[in-house]
Amino acid sequence: MLKKIAILFVIVFTLNSCVSKKVYQELETKFNKLRTSNSELIQEKDDLLAVKKGLESDLTSLNVQLKELKTKKTILENEYASLQNKFKNLQDSYGVLSTQSSKELAEQSQKNQELLAQLEEKERKLVEESLRLEKLQTELSLRAEEVDELQSLINAKEAQMQQLKNAISNALHNFEGNGLTVVHKNGKIYVSMENKLLFDSGSWAVGSEGKKAVEQLASVLSENSDINVLIEGHTDNVPYTGSTLIDNWDLSVKRATAIVRILKSKGVDPTQITAAGRSEFVPIDSNSTSEGKAKNRRIEIILAPNLDEISKLLKD
Questions:
Q1: For domain 172-314, which CATH number applies: 3.40.50.150, 3.30.1330.30, 3.30.1330.60, 3.40.190.10?
Q2: How far apart are CA 239 and CA 249, in angstroms?
Q3: Side-chain-facing half-sphere of 133: CA atoms under 13 Å
Q4: Is this structure's pTM higher than 0.70?
Q5: Cα separation, 182 vs 283, whole angstroms
Q6: Residues 52-100: pLDDT tens digits?
């Protein structure tokens, strides 16, 4: 009897080690998936919503698995109880048969051994499923916390961007409708200034009215150090004919950097700012009319929230 107990202990110890390794591999795989999605989440806040949806899908899937495991555990417990009852009955029978022939005793002993092996196997499976159930419950709880924290950060960023949009609209209300628009969409703020407000034809020198508008915008941005600022210069499709620059690419970049310099001079941290020239290749209207060309000649100032906090959460 002592020998059997020792063998059972070794089997349970070995199986526990196998389970830990398996769980470790599953967790490592899920961690790699989270790390892969991190690079996408940093690109756009929009992608963070997709990640949130994916996490919610994972939670649903884990809840389904949890329900299945609970059902399986109940079945195993019932089978285990039934086998224990059978084993007790066989033990009682074995006492009665102890007076019978050696052949009958051997047969009964063999049945007892087989039943004991079945019991040990069921017990092993029950322990394994219990461990899996515990791990899934822990992971489910952690995932739920991650989703809640991610949603809180997203909501905070949305509220911050709406407050920023309101502050910018208030600062530039004298210019809105006169070649300047402020729009909040997709988690970002787009400040569009037509060239008639900023530049003369073929020039990248900012006029007095345009400079005033940019300076008023800078007064807001300088107080929001965790906002990324992208300045995009756009032209129509009329080729540049001056002698100083090469083409519309050069002109769009020059106009973007002219805006950057005004922002920097008015206290906006240069590490927040990126300048880009898009030339004629991202029109917002047709270049077949003078009105469409006027809309296409513009500066787009795109304000996006800093996503470092969300990125850190996903890495963790």
A1: 3.30.1330.60
A2: 10
A3: 15
A4: no
A5: 18
A6: 888 888 888 888 888 888 898 889 888 888 888 888 888 777 776 666 6
